[in-house]
């Protein structure tokens, strides 16, 4: 039997009751960037034209574009980071496996010059 606070912490914050913002990578930052983009584009359009309804529409479009752009940018960077981590892990694993053996590239004997010492 868990307390109500523990179950709320595990559940996280759900946007519109659907998206669990804390569990989805990059979602929190994307939503925050989208809110900023929405306010900026809506206010700038309103200051330029004084049209309230159209400013709301432009602000909503700004929210959507900024949120999606930020989310995709973050996800692509996370994918690149995972690829780099996998590459480094393989290198570390190979170093551990081959260390001290004949196949260790660090201990390869240098090829002797057939013409003799120079």
Could you please describe the fold and organization of this structure?
With 118 residues, the chain is mainly alpha-helical. It has a domain at 21-98. The protein is built from 3 helices and 2 strands; from the N terminus they run αββαα. The chain has helices spanning 4-11, 27-49, 52-98; strands at 14-15, 19-20. A two-stranded antiparallel ribbon has the order 1-2. α2 runs antiparallel to α3 (52-98). The model has no long low-confidence stretch (mean pLDDT 81). One of its GO terms (cellular component) is mitochondrial inner membrane. One of its GO terms (biological process) is mitochondrial respiratory chain complex IV assembly. Its main location: mitochondrion. The chain crosses the membrane at residues 30-48, 55-73.
Give the beta-strand count: 2
The gyration radius over C-alpha positions equals: 27 Å
Q: Count of DSSP helices?
A: 3
Spatial shape: elongated
User: N-to-C terminal Cα separation, in Å?
Assistant: 80 Å
Oligomer: single chain
What topology, given as strand order, has the largest sheet? Answer: 1-2
Beta-strand fraction estimate: under 5%
Give a short account of the largest sheet.
2 strands, antiparallel
Structural class: mainly alpha
Unreliable stretches covering 5 or more consecutive residues: none
Indicate the mean pLDDT: 81
Which sequence of SSEs, written as H and E, runs from N to C? HEEHH
Helix content: 55-70%
């Amino acid at each position: 039997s868990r307390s109500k606070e523990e179950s709320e912490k595990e559940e996280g914050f759900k946007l519109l009751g659907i998206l669990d913002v804390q569990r989805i990578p990059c979602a929190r930052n994307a939503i925050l960037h989208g809110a900023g983009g929405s306010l900026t584009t809506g206010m700038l359009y309103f200051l330029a034209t004084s049209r309230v309804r159209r400013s709301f529409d432009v602000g909503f479009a700004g929210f959507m574009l900024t949120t999606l752009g930020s989310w995709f940018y973050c996800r692509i960077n996370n994918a690149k980071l995972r690829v780099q981590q996998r590459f480094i892990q393989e290198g570390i694993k190979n170093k551990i496996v081959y260390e001290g053996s004949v196949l260790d590239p660090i201990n390869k004997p240098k090829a002797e010059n057939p013409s003799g010492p120079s």
